[in-house]
Design a protein that fits this description.
14 strands, Rossmann fold, alpha/beta, homodimer
């Protein structure tokens, strides 16, 4: 079996549903044979690793450890789902304090053990804040730390394909930007339904305003439907999509969905935030561009940004993040 | 994205841990874009399917249904994990009656809805009996129905690689034959440790007789260790390995582990049974050959066969399987 690279991938939270799925999917995708699974919960971690051994992936070198230093040492790629999970009825923001503290420690550990990491993907909620916090403390360049933001866009694609009874890939250009929480900006103007602009269809007999509002709201509520149906939060799709992000750095073949990127641009009026933007991923990591949209959509994006600013400032207030004017002294890349 | 085939794969038990993992892994492996997920438990099934949609696999055509007829209609490939699961403390045989009835119905459904199926893999326990029962009622040729048996062999490989502190693929030729339950025959003579015959090492300072007995017993206990560690039975490795079996039919590239095959051979003294043998998988399905081993190992295999004969006869006694002399009238291929 051939792998894209021999570089080490550290999967943090590997005893959990996302992380254990990720170990299997990374090997199935042929990303790298060199995987370390980390979790503080040893029995579940060992059990998940044993399952990988029973899969008998050719040439795989999967190890597991409850020592974060061993896990990160020399890692080129890090994906962390290792926050506290969101339960039914909880908003993503409820998790703010606990998970931002976990993210701060993760950033420090990355700086200590793998300061040359090529790409770090953060997928524990609220990801905009945990990703930002990890970036700041890691000392890495901004393009080396990203958050998973795709699922909002793929949920939009799914809902529209179901509404129009079309194969999913006939629905193109689905985009949400800004925060990953309920304040996200759901764009319609970028979207095509079997080639036809979605904005031409909203308000027609094919898609009433009310139905579009319902779809947008469904997307804003993120994985709520999965929690209701499965009795647990999404784990397969976050695993799959975050591995595709890493794969794009490894193979330079691109990644088709928006990602959470660090944005600090006076030109656009977005400062010191991590949020979903139009992005591309290559061997140098992540870069972003300003989304294209209607005035109303761009106003939604600005509102979403303001919501994130508030969350970020709460985390500064808690003392988990340093004051904004000290970020550059903590991470000279920012 | 390119797939090996456009043929339909029906995944039965797709709301469960194995089945939902299998949908994702089949798409990740690029087997076929044409997947139907079936389960009687609709919310969990829909939730698992939604996760697949959120993965946004290119060109995928994943559907889900609680109607077994719709699920199987026109399917070329069928994998079923849809029995009752084994819980901690239960032997695989405890499941005998309920799951053999499920298997009988599955066989009848295959005959009704996909009588030209190319390959059916049964992975619910006791798999030797459920696979046999499915085969008889399906009317399919013997080589078109197989059971997953690899995990006993990959567990042996894992345990030996851990004992000798070697990469897993330096431990070759790991083989268990006969039943998938605790009566399985664990072969040592086929096995090489970094090129050295395992039989030369057993009883030496490198592997005491007692340690080898412990390893064999661990393997015979199957997934018990996973249940203890994860609080649930294996699901990632059964999913992965059974998809590799299907892949071997699709791509003709072979499959490296023993499978459960229908065996009816006066020459070898094994009649009307399904059990793990030395097997190969190609585009025509599964074929078996007689395992090679020491007299003692072959005696173990015969004991394991006798155990399966007893189980099989219990299922005949229950009225779930027809009397042996009527099998040919139920399935003219046998």
């Amino acid at each position: 079996m051939s792998y894209l690279t021999e570089d080490k991938l550290a999967i943090l939270g590997a005893a959990g549903a996302i992380g254990s799925n990720m170990a299997q999917a990374a090997l199935t995708m042929g990303l790298t044979p060199n995987i370390t699974m980390y979790d503080p919960y040893e029995p579940g971690l060992q059990g998940a690793a044993e399952e990988m051994y029973h899969c008998a992936f050719p040439d795989a070198r999967v190890s597991w450890t409850t020592d974060i230093g061993h896990a990160l040492q020399g890692a080129s790629y890090v994906i962390s789902s290792g926050g506290a999970p969101r339960k039914e009825g909880m908003t993503r923001e409820d998790l703010l304090k606990g998970n931002s503290e976990i993210a701060a420690q993760l950033g420090k550990d990355i700086r200590s053990y793998c300061p040359n990491a090529k790409f770090v993907v953060i997928i524990f909620n609220p990801a905009d804040i945990t990703g930002l916090t990890t970036l700041i403390y890691s000392g890495l360049p901004a393009g080396r730390v990203a958050t998973l933001a795709a699922l909002d866009s793929t949920r939009l694609q799914t809902a529209l394909s179901q509404h129009f009874s079309l194969p999913q890939d006939k629905v193109t250009g689905c985009r949400t930007y800004g925060g990953h929480g309920e304040s996200m900006a759901v764009f319609a103007s970028t979207c095509r339904i079997d080639g036809r602009p979605l904005t031409d269809l909203i308000g027609s007999s094919e898609l009433s305003d009310q139905k579009w509002a319902e779809i947008s709201q469904h997307v804003r509520q993120g994985g709520k439907k999965i929690i209701q149906l499965r009795g647990r939060s999404s784990f397969q799709s976050p695993s799959h999509q975050s591995l595709l992000m890493v794969k794009a750095v490894m193979d330079g073949q691109g990644y088709p969905w928006p990602c959470g990127a660090y944005v600090d641009s006076d030109d656009h009026g977005f400062n010191k935030i991590m949020m979903s933007m139009e992005t591309s991923i290559g061997s140098d990591g992540l870069s972003w561009t300003m989304p294209q949209g209607t005035d109303s959509e761009l106003a939604d994006l600005r509102d979403s940004y303001q919501h994130l600013v508030k969350l970020r400032d709460e985390v500064v207030e808690m003392g988990v993040l340093p004051p904004l004017d000290e970020w550059n002294s903590v991470n000279s890349n920012l």
